[in-house]
């Protein structure tokens, strides 16, 4: 009979590397014969990250929105269900990239009122290049949300430092320390960090004062601007034409992912696009997984994107 279930919250803007870190956390716990469970939520109505998490890990998905938009009660009942059904040794709540971490903290804290759980802390993953750019531009809702995610962290991963220069890493360290002097900051590439010391160095208490939670209603509006377009493919498309479309995506689209069948290759691909960097991974999904791509951004034209994608399907010979 398990006593108290530790819970970690994983936060970070879209595409910063949360799922990459989640995979490493799962490996770490499984190597110790522990059973981790995951609560994942995605903005939009498909969750492709599920494919990246091992099948033996119990997982709950909360789709079509984000944890902080659904009621907090939903999150706490998901936690309760997982504990009763699977008795995991540890739970990770991976927040959608546009979630406000204060709301999620609030949900987990509510669950702690009637469940034997121990909120260990909040890990925020930062896309170094993206943060640097927003810092230089100084403003915008995405920038404020990223600041919020950094402020709430009990440990911070300054990820994707391969995408910035060494002196820029120093600048970023100074920036994040000025927003959160409390959390240890760990620079990383592909979230390749020493998990044991990361979890060990995590500050025991969260830096969120009780009063901050009362601001949550005000903060809730912070991701109203984010929109999603989900495209289901009827036909396989040419890989080069697709890559070209991705390379020319409007700047307003800052995240995309999908599963694709290309007309010119035999295998299927999981494609990722985060802050202007595309990535393709050969996969062999089990079961009936459709060809689909999800695009997330701010005020981009869904119809132009839909037309461009349909044109790719139609140009296939
Ligand atoms: N260049 C570079 N790419 C990285 C790094 N870490 C992760 N990536 C890539 O960035 C993309 C997004 O990573 P994810 O781990 O899926 O990001 P996420 O935060 O879970 O994304 P959402 O689920 O959309 O919020 C993937 O293609 C990763 O392989 C890094 O340190 N450097």
UniProtKB/TrEMBL annotation:
<dbReference type="Pfam" id="PF02492">
    <property type="entry name" value="cobW"/>
</dbReference>
<dbReference type="InterPro" id="IPR051316">
    <property type="entry name" value="Zinc-reg_GTPase_activator"/>
</dbReference>
<keyword id="KW-0547">Nucleotide-binding</keyword>
<keyword id="KW-0378">Hydrolase</keyword>
<dbReference type="InterPro" id="IPR011629">
    <property type="entry name" value="CobW-like_C"/>
</dbReference>
<feature type="domain" description="CobW C-terminal">
    <location>
        <begin position="232"/>
        <end position="312"/>
    </location>
</feature>
<dbReference type="GO" id="GO:0016787">
    <property type="term" value="F:hydrolase activity"/>
</dbReference>
<dbReference type="InterPro" id="IPR003495">
    <property type="entry name" value="CobW/HypB/UreG_nucleotide-bd"/>
</dbReference>
<dbReference type="InterPro" id="IPR027417">
    <property type="entry name" value="P-loop_NTPase"/>
</dbReference>
<protein>
    <submittedName>
        <fullName>Metal chaperone</fullName>
    </submittedName>
</protein>
<dbReference type="Pfam" id="PF07683">
    <property type="entry name" value="CobW_C"/>
</dbReference>
<comment type="similarity">
    <text>Belongs to the SIMIBI class G3E GTPase family. ZNG1 subfamily.</text>
</comment>
<feature type="domain" description="CobW/HypB/UreG nucleotide-binding">
    <location>
        <begin position="6"/>
        <end position="186"/>
    </location>
</feature>
<dbReference type="InterPro" id="IPR036627">
    <property type="entry name" value="CobW-likC_sf"/>
</dbReference>
<dbReference type="GO" id="GO:0005737">
    <property type="term" value="C:cytoplasm"/>
</dbReference>
<keyword id="KW-0143">Chaperone</keyword>
<dbReference type="GO" id="GO:0000166">
    <property type="term" value="F:nucleotide binding"/>
</dbReference>
């Amino acid at each position: 009979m398990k006593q108290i279930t530790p819970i970690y919250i994983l936060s970070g803007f879209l595409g910063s590397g949360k799922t990459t870190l989640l995979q490493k956390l799962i490996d770490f716990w499984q190597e110790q014969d522990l059973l981790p469970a995951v609560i994942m939520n995605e903005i939009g109505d498909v969750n492709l990250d599920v494919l990246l998490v091992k099948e033996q890990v119990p997982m709950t998905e909360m789709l079509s929105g984000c944890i902080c938009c659904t009621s907090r009660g939903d999150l706490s009942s998901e936690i309760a269900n997982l504990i009763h059904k699977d008795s995991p040794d540890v739970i990770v709540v991976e927040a959608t990239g546009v979630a406000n971490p204060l709301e999620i903290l609030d949900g987990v804290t509510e669950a702690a009122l009637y469940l034997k759980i121990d909120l260990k802390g909040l890990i925020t993953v930062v896309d170094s290049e993206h943060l640097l750019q927003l810092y230089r531009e100084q403003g915008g809702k995405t920038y404020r949300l990223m600041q919020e995610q950094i402020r709430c962290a009990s440990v911070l991963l300054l990820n994707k430092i391969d995408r910035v220069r060494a002196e820029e890493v120093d600048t970023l360290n100074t920036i994040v320390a000025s927003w959160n002097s409390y959390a240890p900051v760990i620079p990383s590439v592909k979230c390749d960090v020493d998990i044991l010391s990361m979890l060990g160095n995590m500050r025991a208490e969260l830096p969120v004062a009780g009063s901050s939670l009362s601001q949550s209603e005000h903060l809730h509006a912070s991701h109203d601007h984010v929109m999603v377009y989900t495209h289901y493919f009827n036909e396989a498309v040419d890989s080069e034409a697709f890559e070209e479309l991705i390379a020319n995506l409007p700047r307003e689209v800052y995240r995309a992912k999908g599963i694709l069948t290309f007309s010119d290759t035999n295998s299927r691909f999981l494609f990722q696009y985060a802050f202007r960097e595309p990535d393709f991974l050969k996969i062999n999904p089990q079961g009936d997984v459709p060809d689909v791509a999800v695009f997330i951004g701010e005020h981009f034209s869904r119809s132009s994107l839909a037309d461009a994608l349909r044109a790719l399907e139609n140009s296939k010979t």
